[in-house]
Amino acid sequence: MYSTRQIAARLCAVLLLALGGPAAAVDVSLRAPGASQSFTDGLRAASLVIETVKTERVSAQDVVAAARADYARMLTYLYEQGYYGGVVSIRIDGREADGLSPIAAPSTIRRVDMVIEPGPLFAFGRAELRPIAPDTDLPEGFATGSIARAGLIGDAARAGVDGWRQVGHAKADIADQTFTAGRVGIGSFDDM
Fold it and tell me: Is-contact 105 63, C-beta < 8 A?
């Protein structure tokens, strides 16, 4: 028979094996072909993987979970910069991270390769907010032909609602939304 202490020790060992041990030194590369250094630096700052591997006691499970979260983080960064057709690839030791289970992570991870292809830059085909209360200040950059940064859309919507609330319509809210954007440098917006 096994003692309670022996059973607990074996259970902990099995659990550590199942969850993956320490990730050891993980080499992380991030490339954004054709992007500027400042754009690539912004992607690095948005990456949870890059932040996670800096911690002292990081496990393989931590790296897999961070890599899986980075798909959304990288896309969010692209949208904030006006890129809506990007492709994000995050490979852990040669395998795409979204196909790895964070629960059954590999026992060790040596390398994470991130390749972010921004895709085409988009601009607002028409930037218009209706109806708009008098003296409503819309954010700078929310204009036809400007880069269609995702944050500007939300900022403009909030400014519109706030404008109505400031003139006495406390229950003002967004009723409907339509967005028109086109690739920068590709024909006119009327062709889209």
Answer: yes
- Would strands 27-31 and 87-92 be described as parallel, antiparallel, or unpaired? unpaired
What single-letter DSSP state applies at residue 147? B
Q: How far apart are CA 115 and CA 98, in angstroms?
A: 14
| pLDDT tens digits, 102-141 | 788 888 999 999 999 999 999 988 888 888 899 999 999 9
- Considering the entire predicted model, what is its pTM? 0.76
The conformation of residue 190, written as its DSSP 8-state character, comes to G
CA distance 10 to 13: 5
> Range with the lowest mean pLDDT among 4-18, 23-37, 95-109, 141-155?
4-18
